[in-house]
Each structure stands twice: as C-alpha cells, then as structure tokens.
TrEMBL record, chain A:
GO biological process, one term: cobalt ion transport
CDD domains found in the cross-reference section: ABC_cobalt_CbiO_domain1
Highest taxon above the source species: Bacteria
Record-stated family: Belongs to the ABC transporter superfamily.
PROSITE patterns found in the cross-reference section: ABC_TRANSPORTER_1 (PS00211), ABC_TRANSPORTER_2 (PS50893)
UniProt keyword annotations, A-Z: ATP-binding, Cell membrane, Membrane, Nucleotide-binding, Translocase, Transport
Organism: Thiobaca trueperi
Purpose: Part of an ABC transporter complex. Responsible for energy coupling to the transport system.
GO terms for MF: ATP binding; ATP hydrolysis activity; ATPase-coupled transmembrane transporter activity
Keyword Coiled coil assigned: no
Record protein name field: ABC transporter ATP-binding protein
TrEMBL record, chain B:
GO biological process, one term: cobalt ion transport
Name assigned to this protein: Cobalt/nickel transport system permease protein
Compartments where found: Cell membrane
GO cellular component terms listed in the entry, alphabetical order: ATP-binding cassette (ABC) transporter complex
Keyword line: Cell membrane, Membrane, Transmembrane, Transmembrane helix
The organism of origin for this protein: Thiobaca trueperi
InterPro entries per the UniProt record, alphabetical: ABC/ECF_trnsptr_transmembrane (IPR003339), ECF_CbiQ (IPR012809), ECF_transporter_component (IPR051611)
NCBIfam families noted in UniProt: ECF_T_CbiQ
Amino acid sequence: MSRSFVELERLAYAYPDGTQALADISLRAHQGESVAIVGANGAGKSTLLLHLNGYLRPQQGRVRIGDLSLTKESLPAVRRLVGMVFQDPDDQLFMPTVAEDVAFGPLNQGLPVAEVERRVNDALQRVGALALRERPPYRLSGGEKRAVAIATVLAMEPAMLVLDEPSSNLDPGARRRLIRLLAGFEQTTFIATHDLDLALDLCSRTVVLREGRIVADGPTAEIFVDAALLAASGLEPPLRMQGCPLCGQAAIETT
Amino acid sequence: MSGIDASLFDLGRLDHLGRQETPLHRLDPRAKILTTAVFLVCVVSFGQYDVAPLLPYAIFPIALASAGRIPFDYLLKKLLIVSPFALLVGIFNPLLDQEPRLQLGSLAVSGGWISFMSILLRFALTVSAALVLIAITRFENLCLGLQRLGVPQVFTLQLLFLYRYLFVLVDESRRLVRARALRSVGARGLGMRVYASLLGHLLLRTLDRARRIHIAMRCRGFSGEIRSLQPLRIGHPEMLFTLGWCGIFMVLRIWNLPQILGDLTLRLVT
C-alpha cells in the first residue's frame, strides 16, 4: 500500500481561552482521497482544517503533508501544496477585481506575469467564471463568489484542497454546479460540511468529530446509516436517506 | 439610501475611476507620485500673502483631471466636503490681521483677507491634486509606487489595508445600523446609549473579519510584499511627464506669471 499523503498524529489544540478544540486526532489520507469532516457546530471542524495548511501549528502531535512535516520552516512549502477555500467567500476575496484576486496567490508564489495570466484564465474557465474576470468581487452573487473563491485556490495548482462549508448559503442550482465541479477534482480533498448529501456525493470516506475528538472514521455509506452515531454527534442522515413526507414512508428512524 | 450606503458608493466610485484605462492611468505610479509631491512643495512654499502666483498652478489638477476623465463636479463636491477644515484654519485671519495691504480703487483689502484667500487657494490646489492622483492611479499601485520610492513597508501596508478594510468596516456598520433601524420601528431606538454598544460590536466584528481575511491572505502565500500584475517601468512617457510638469512648476515658482501677463497687457494698452 502506498504511503499516505496526509498524516495527522495525535494532534491536540486548545484555544487561548482554554477551550480544548481538538484532542488526540490521528488521521491518514492517501493521494486523491476525498474525506468529509462532519460534526456539530463547535465540534472542531474548522480548527482541524486550519491545521492542514499550517495556519495553526499543532500544540501537540504532528502534521505531515506529502513529504513535508509541518514546521515553521516548511510552512511556505506546505501552503503551496494545500489550497484552502474559506466558509465565507467575502473573507477570501479582497482584491478589487476577480482577475486580480485570482492572480494574488500565483503572484505571491513569484511566478512570471505571463504564467500568472494563464493560470488566472485557466482557473476561472474551470469554475465557469471567465466572464466575471473584470468585475469587482463584492458585486457578485453568492454562487459566483464561491466559484471565484475556488478559482483563487485552483490558480495556485495545489496538490490538496481544503474546503470549509462549500455549499453553505448557495441556492440549489449553484450547489449542484459546485458538486459537479468538485467531483471533477483529482486532488486530495478535505471537506468540512453540514451538508451530508454533498458528502454522500463527493466523499468516499467520512470522519465524524464530536467535542474535538474523532468518534467515527470510515466509508461514508456506512457512517451515514448509523443513525445513533449521527444523532449523538448533532447530525441527521442525509435528506435523501430520510423518509419521504409525501408518501409517508420513514426510511431511517432519526429521533 | 442611507448615509453610509451613499458614502460607500462614493468610495467605490473613486476606486472605479482609478481603474480606467487612459494613458495617464497607465503611467508608472512613481512618476505621478513624484510629480504630485513636487507640485505640493511648490504650492506650499509661497508666501503668506501670495494669491496671484498660485493661480496658474490650477492647470495641473485641471489638466490631469480632464486627461484622466475625472468628472469636475465629482472633484468639486469632494473639495466642498473637506473645505470646513481649511475654512476653520483661515477664518480668524481677517480678524487678527487688519492692516490694509491692497488697494482696489477705494476699497482697502486687509492682509488677513489676503492670507485667508491664499490658504483657501492652497487648500483647493493641494487637495484636488491629491484627489486626482488617487483617481488616476489604482490604489494598490499607489502603495507599490510609494514602497519602491523608499517609503517603509510598514507604512505602505498600513495604507493598503486601511483602504481595503474600509469597505469591510463600512459594510459591517451598515448591517448594524440596519438591524437597529428595523427594530426601533421608526422611533429613535434607545437613543445615544445604544451607539456605545454598536461601536463596540463594530470594533469586535471588524477585528474578527480582518483576522479571517488575514488568514486567507497568508494561505495564499502573502508575505508582506505587494505584488501587481501591472509591471512598473520608468520609460519615456514617465520621464516626459515628470520632467515636463516639474519644469512648469519651477517656471511658475520663479516668475509670477499673472503679474508678467498683467504688466504686458498694461504696456500694450498704454
């Protein structure tokens, strides 16, 4: 079996106010795997994601991405490997135009201008937002903003993608387009989400967090039929696996 | 539209003007910054009672505004908004300095009024030049230009972020004000008291958001250096622009053009 691409070993993190956000997190993912991180609000999903690209450095334990063990020295290299898409696209889009925003990462990587231009156009093309190139980000719709936010990360050509709540605040159509887009990615992907239907579509594996600890880690299809586990973690089975209110048929008891 | 909305729109307009594509906009920001700096030094270097020699300097903001397609009414409106400061600085001059300095027919004009005029004129010239500079240059290029000219990174970054987060701040305050307005049902809410809490919230929210934006920037490799797609280059147009204007400023500084013109007309008439 090939060596894992991502490895978290006994990771722990407490916020300065004493809240233990993560405890004893051990996790491996191989190249190209897509993993859903699910759990209630405050279960530690976002904190876990922030460790994956080194924004937070482990207080205990170890993080390894590719061949790089996460340390202060390897930080710039790790950030080049990992693309992070934030929950609120408004936090991610801070440049005056879409094109400049997408160019921000590649420019910081020190790439020549011609190459940056190519990457900007490629990334925008891929998310279907090429027409938005010269628009200011704050005038875009929610779905467009999300697409552009993903393009800003794609333009850096990361080996791994980390997405925090990618489908929040999207209309159903935009959500479906997002799922199609993400399904086309070959990178290793971590998605933190409450949208279990999205996880069902995109992630072969699911990790359930509760109060900063991993309480389950396995194939998505198996995790999502364990109603007791989901209920204890503040979750419900994906809507598609629940009963139909019109035909009155209960699929899984959820209470 | 509430006041906050309108001012945000206005800021956005300045930003929008800075993104036009004219030969003036394409000039290297350093050339524009240097020229404006020389302009400012020339204008403020005149004596307290100088009015006439300052007048020809208006050609710089006017020429740049028309070449850069900056609407004059927009500039005038901005000037009016900040004019109370200049008025306040100069308003006591006519009272303090009543010695007659100028005789217009039978009318004696005191030194105070002349220096007041001079202050107003200088204010109009310097502020409009600065406004035009921002309106013909992308703000991030302006910061980049300043940095290349040797301004420490700490200051240029502050400037850049001040400008960027301004939109964030205004956006957050708009939401707070709207939330208050909707729940105070047309009445005055809880009066002034509630504003203290609003301000506190605004500060916390803005800090929080600024932190998240900072994370996002760091995640995309931001290391404190401003980079731009538009390469900076000092070429012939930049040299021509800077040297040409500086030459004009010098000429206007050394010779009092309105006086020379006046003398000339007088001589022609008599």
